[in-house]
Amino acid sequence: EFGLVSLIFSAALAYFPSRPPFPPSVAAASQRLSYRRSFCRLLSNFRFLMIALAYAIPLGVFSGWSGVLDLILTPVHVSQVDAGWIGFWSIVGGCVVGIAMARFADFIRGMLKFILLLLLSGATLASTWFTLTCLTSVTHLPLTTATLYTSCILLGIFLNSSVPIFFELFVETVYPVPEGITCGVVTFLSNVFMGVLLFFLTFYHTEFSWFNWCLPGSCLLSLLLILCFRESYDRLYLDVVVSV
Fold it and tell me: What predicted TM-score, i.e. pTM, was given to this entire model?
């Protein structure tokens, strides 16, 4: 792995252009804000902070939750191998559906909020199903390997496939802030929430029902934030109208 990374790094040092020969769009060729003005614009933009939290909270919770999935499933007699495969297929499913969802969003421009509402609704239902299934002594829902696989994989698909839609909505909302700065800020914020959750896990690691309830709670909170969000497409407007 180190050899492959070193090879790619050497190739990037030898030749990696700062930009393509021709800009791919009108917005890509436009002047962007500086680093300082970009951070000030992001921190003072209430709409951006709203969708940044809508992205960072459920994705951060899901990342921390999936990292200790084997510990969570141990009380319901699921082996570490099965837990690993559940996590694997949830990530793979999210990647495949995410690519398809991003391509689908290109055909129906201006519908990012609606797509996110559908994905987050599905994530809320899937996470609630998983959480209630693990409460066997209370809900008496069928607890089988198939139900655990299905609920976890659906949760991974809904949340991971929302990532490209979120990123597109970020850059549309805060344009002309550079895309790299915007996506870097929300990724850092997601890691912060994951770190906070894992920090609490060091103190409350004997019982995991609270951890499971964090999933539907975070998805529901994100759903409400997106529901209240007012979308705008400044960059898309520039590309479509000005280019024409």
Answer: 0.81
Residue type, position 138, single letter: V
State both tokens at 199: 């920090």
Q: Give the whole-number percent of the chain exceeding pLDDT 70.
A: 89
**Rounded distance between C-alpha atoms, residue 133 and residue 28, angstroms:** 48
Phi-psi region of 68 (alpha: psi -120 to 50; beta: other; left: phi over 0): alpha
User: Which residues lie closer than 8 Å to 117 by C-beta, 6 or more apart?
Assistant: 223, 226, 227
CA–CA distance, 8 with 159 (Å, rounded to integer): 30
Question: What is the residue type of 125?
Answer: L
- Computed on alpha carbons and rounded to an integer, the radius of gyration of the chain in Å comes to 20
DSSP calls for 13-30: HHS--SS-SS-SSHHHHS
Task: Give the pLDDT of residue 70.
Answer: 79
Give me the domains of the chain, ranges plus CATH numbers. Answer: 59-229 (1.20.1250)
